[in-house]
Amino acid sequence: MGISLKSSQNLLKGLIPHTEDTTESITKITEYIKQEQNRYNIPDEALVNLFYCLLELKDNSLNEEIQSYLSSDIHPGRDLSSSMCTVLTYILLMSEKVLDEFNPKRFTSKQADNRRLIPAVRCCKKALFDSCGFDETCCETVSSALQSSNSHLKELVMSSNHLKDSGVKLIYGGLKSPHCQLNILRLSGCHLTA
């Protein structure tokens, strides 16, 4: 995508003998990418790749929309789309900002999209993942975050998820890590045995 930019074409003048004004093409490509991001069943990797393409084309509209969404406290009746949840996670992970609190239900009411936001646990001090539809993959993600050398997580609420013993064993692996900073772990209503 970046090759279609005028600045890139100037650098490649010797290799590309004929260049033309591509402003109209870039506009069409940008619109196409935005349509693709709203398709169902598109893999997360592909969504992030499309987001990269928008950044290469100097289109920051998606990034600006997410930053605006993050800075606002009130989002009446609005859910982020699946693609926006994926891009939100990407932006949070790439930024160096550590959130005081992260609650995926603030951004979406769909459990499938809640799970898309779980990797953001790496960049927060308090994570509220109660009733988020966690599965073992989610527990592996949380365990990995707890073991990270730059873990910031102090409080983790995972109540009312069907974790069962197998999920908690995965979390326990993260709790054993010398990097784990966790002080509070809430697991009520997670279908655990004695």
Summarize the structure.
The protein has 194 residues and is an alpha/beta fold. It has a domain at 98-194: Leucine-rich repeat, LRR (right-handed beta-alpha superhelix) (Alpha-Beta Horseshoe), CATH 3.80.10.
Word description of this protein:
This protein is α/β, with parallel strands linked by helices and 194 residues long. The protein has a domain at 98-194: Leucine-rich repeat, LRR (right-handed beta-alpha superhelix) (Alpha-Beta Horseshoe). It contains eight helices and four strands; from the N terminus they run H-H-H-H-H-E-H-E-H-E-H-E. It has helices spanning 6-11, 23-37, 44-56, 61-71, 82-94, 111-117, 136-147, 164-175, and strands at 99-102, 124-128, 155-157, 184-186. Helix 2 packs antiparallel against helix 3 (44-56). The termini are far apart. The mean pLDDT is 81.
What is the CA-based Rg, rounded?
20 Å
The structural class is alpha/beta
CATH class of the domain at 98-194: Alpha Beta
How would a crystallographer describe the biggest sheet? 4 strands, parallel
* Low-pLDDT segments, ≥5 res: none
* Helix content percent band: 40-55%
Order of helices and strands: HHHHHEHEHEHE
CATH superfamily descriptor of the domain at 98-194: Ribonuclease Inhibitor
Strand content: 5-15%
Total helix count?
8
C-alpha termini separation:
56 Å
